[in-house]
Amino acid sequence: MKHITRFGIFMTLAVLLTGMLLIQGCSDSDVAPTSPNTDQALRTTGALNPAVREVMAIQERNTTALMATQDVIGTATTIDENGNPAILLLVTSEKAMGAMPADIDGVPVKILLTDPIVAMKGKPGGGGGGGGSVDHKALQTPPIQMGTSGGWHYDLANGYCCGGTLGSLIQVGGQLRILSNYHVFEADIVNGGNGRKATTGDPIVQPGLIDIGCNAASGQDVATLVVSHSIPNNNVDCSTATIISGMVDPSGAILEIGTLSSQTVAAYVGQNVKKSGRTTGLTRSSVSGLNATVSVSYEDECAGSTAFTKTYTGQIVIDNKGSKFLAGGDSGSLMVEDATSNPRAVGLLFAGSRSAAIANPIDEVLSFLGASMVGN
Amino acid sequence: MAHPTRDISAVLKDHAAGWMQIPGVTMVAEGQTETGAPCLRIYVLELTPQLRGRLPDAVEGYPVEIEESGEIKPLGAGG
Hints:
Shape of chain B: globular
Low-confidence stretches of chain A: 1-48, 114-130
Strand order of the largest sheet of chain A: 6-7-5-10-11-12-9-8-19
Number of strands of chain B: 6
CATH topology of chain B: GMP Synthetase, Chain A, domain 3
Strand content of chain B: 35-45%
Order of helices and strands of chain B: HEEHEEEE
Number of helices of chain B: 2
Structural class of chain A: alpha+beta
Oligomer: heterodimer
Largest interface: A-B, 65 and 35 residues
Largest sheet of chain B: 4 strands, mixed
CATH class of chain B: Alpha Beta
Mean pLDDT of chain A: 81
Helix content of chain A: 10-25%
Shape of chain A: elongated
CATH architecture of chain B: 2-Layer Sandwich
Largest sheet of chain A: 9 strands, antiparallel
Helix content of chain B: 10-25%
Number of domains of chain B: 1
Distance between the termini of chain B: 50 Å
Number of strands of chain A: 19
Low-confidence stretches of chain B: none
Structural class of chain B: alpha+beta
């Protein structure tokens, strides 16, 4: 009985994935390629295309056997880099990746390493998490994990309060510090609406003021700010805060991601990535562009006036259609490769729009700070 | 379309500043077409016929894709 239920779930998953992938191909609004290959035809005809139907049949014939392989959790029909129909296998371990065939009955195989797929619970009350069960806006019991709401303790001005994400833990000269953005920790550079500027030694509060009714007394101080003035004169939007002993998990664990590798990895187009942030929680996407030049405007305090516009070069662009990967309040999140355990850091997320998210390459951030990632 | 003779990063570097000066352009980057070929990508606030007319279809053998991004801004939260 257990086996039948399990198989039923897998078959459902396979069918759903097939539909999702083909629908995604049909609805993609990017500029159509001019290449004469069959890719566009396959995408526009989807499951009605005879070639796709043939691959779906092969996929279905082999699904039972594939599912019996350890750490294989799904199969689907997809389109490969050459525009030809292919079989997609979802696996949860690198060992399983290595054990998969290059083709099945002559059909090329694509392999996607993913986390286990679980039933989605409803959103927690008032919480972020992208529909997951972890509340990224909640007051945590110390020592806290990263990927959570936080910000400058005094980030209240002009009738508003502000915040972002305490993204990850780094090491600077033997000191453990929280890594976030300049505009989350230290963007208040005028006395303006609150009579103060962000200064080294100021407390960093968790959750951020925006999630505790703008009342810092309802949160907890977890670190002290180290002003770094990364912008406007440098190419990274970063800031750090030294952790207060006992308040932050020294392993650097991030909500819904866990501990990291101490190593980093460079971005590449098509790379699958994920992040854990205050607003949208754990989300996944892929790198769509590299070496980007982009101008971003910053305010001089919470709800303040424009302070300057910074033009960045060499940035990472991530697909963010519908702001599903990154939204307001997620700034400061660390972007990592979409690996199951101890993923490597890729970038520091800091800006975006309804269709694109932007990250500083993590090596440039760490180099600026003289830092390394905390991880295994 | 001519075959590329220079690295795409060098081509982008030579054109990025000029494109960023065009009103409505928000970002430029290297990307890939759906078929996996390298391309130049220009992101715009809103794609109007006037703006489209100012942007190329290809440069030095690389296709240029245009994408509407809307406004790009820091993603802190305020409320």
